[in-house]
Design goal:
Shape: globular
Number of helices: 13
Radius of gyration: 20 Å
CATH class of the largest domain: Alpha Beta
Helix content: 25-40%
CATH superfamily of the largest domain: Dihydrodipicolinate Reductase, domain 2
Bound molecules: NADP nicotinamide-adenine-dinucleotide phosphate
Structural class: alpha/beta
CATH architecture of the largest domain: 2-Layer Sandwich
Number of domains: 2
Strand order of the largest sheet: 3-2-1-4-5-6
CATH topology of the largest domain: Dihydrodipicolinate Reductase, domain 2
Order of helices and strands: EHEHHEHEHEHEHEHHEEEEHEHEEHH
Distance between the termini: 18 Å
Oligomer: single chain
Length: about 350
């Protein structure tokens, strides 16, 4: 059986990736796409500013874009709705959807820290999907959130280190791509010959969401991790795609660079290992040994954009571990993760909607 899906916010950067991945997906039928009123009732190819490296899929070129409203979704009756809207619009629309009974996978930052809302990075915390049962107390439908882009990349790198050696402190300084700011993004006058050391609310998202994702599921609720903390400093840089993050961390006990490297390479993503999810990369974490990698332009498309690349793993003279991690922000950090979550939902659909 194939699941009928709709992409809400299909003309944005995340929406275009979702459309591209879902239009040819073996488990999903893309039955509808939406955007703002201005673009509604026109052909997708005539209103979208296509920004991906691949050609627009032929089967979506002629699709008519719907206005983003609940009546249109009710007419389509999808099994799963993927939303990729600005947060101020998403915070109302996601709730309208779940009140109506839809299963929603949402990319915006609203509701990410709610106790009964799973914030999923499937290789890391697929078991958190079990908190969805608690949502029966407030909605007919179910809301699942995709984490902040820099956080998805960071937590995938931290997971094997935390599991094997424990964590006390994590400091991260990010160099985030322009595409992270959406299709209208940052003006060229602001970013050419420049770095902007500020992205609104981004540091709090990385610091709080990481602890939720690496938290424990107990008594059907998620207990954020209290054994370590994360402190973040963020920067917007003149790169199109791919967030590079410089990480400094202290483990519970001192470990060698070789032990850290081995734990990353051997990470087994136990939580979803046997599910055969089509979007899961065969190697979620790739370790490079060259002294000047990873680099956004060279490494962001590893594993079709779903693998993260870790390099420059080293130690300072106080036994802090340092490394760089790179991930494709609109794929691993957004739409690719959203589709992977969709596949996890598809595998558990009947349990989820009970
Ligand atoms: N970009 C990333 O790397 C990334 C990563 C993780 C999470 N996110 C989150 O994902 C969401 C989407 O991000 P994005 O980068 O794709 O943004 P974007 O490029 O600005 O796209 C926004 C989408 O929302 C639609 N939209 C805007 N205002 C609307 C309204 N009033 N009514 C209905 N639709 C409206 C737009 O339609 P029109 O074309 O008609 O305006 C467009 O389809 C955001 O919440 C963002 O924070 C983004």
């Amino acid at each position: 059986m194939k699941f009928n899906v709709v992409v809400v916010g299909s003309t944005g950067l995340v929406g275009q990736r979702l459309v591209s991945m879902l239009s040819k997906h073996q488990w999903f039928n893309l039955i509808g796409i939406t955007a703002s009123k201005d673009k509604a009732n026109k052909k997708y190819k005539d209103v979208v500013k296509w920004s991906l490296e691949n050609k627009m899929p032929e089967n979506v070129e002629e699709m008519i874009v719907y206005d983003t409203n609940i009546e249109n979704i009710n007419n389509l009756k999808p099994d799963i709705v993927f939303t990729s809207l600005p947060t101020d619009i998403s915070k109302d629309f996601d709730i309208q959807l779940v009140k109506q009974g839809y299963v929603v996978i949402s990319h915006a930052s609203n509701n990410r820290m709610d106790k009964d809302v799973p914030l999923l990075n499937p290789e890391v915390n697929a078991d958190h999907i079990n908190v969805l049962k608690l949502q029966a107390n407030r909605w007919k439908g179910r809301l699942i959130k995709v984490p902040n882009c820099a956080t998805s990349i960071l937590t995938l790198a931290l997971k094997p280190i935390y599991d094997n050696f424990g964590l006390r402190h994590v400091f991260v300084s990010t160099m985030q791509a322009l595409s992270g700011a959406g299709i209208n993004g940052v003006s060229s006058m602001a970013i050419l010959d420049n770095i902007i050391p500020y992205i609104e609310h981004e540091e709090e998202k990385i610091e709080n969401e990481s602890l939720k994702i690496l938290g424990e599921l107990s008594n059907e609720s998620i207990k954020p991790n209290e054994s370590f903390y994360v402190s973040a400093s963020v920067h917007r840089v003149n790169v199109l795609e791919g967030h590079l993050e410089s990480v400094f961390l202290k483990t519970d006990n001192d470990v060698s660079v070789e032990e850290i490297k081995k734990s990353l390479i051997e990470f087994k993503e136990n939580k979803i290992k046997n599910l055969n999810l089509p979007t899961k990369p065969s190697q979620p974490i790739i370790v490079r040994n060259e002294i000047d990698r990873p680099q956004p332009r060279l490494d962001r498309n590893e594993g079709n954009g779903m693998s993260i690349v870790v390099g420059r793993i080293r130690k300072d003279n106080r036994n802090w571990i340092k490394f760089n991690v790179l991930g494709h922000n609109t794929i691993r950090g957004a739409a690719g993760n959203g589709v992977l979550i969709g596949e996890l939902v598809a595998k558990n659909y009947n349990d989820i909607i009970q």
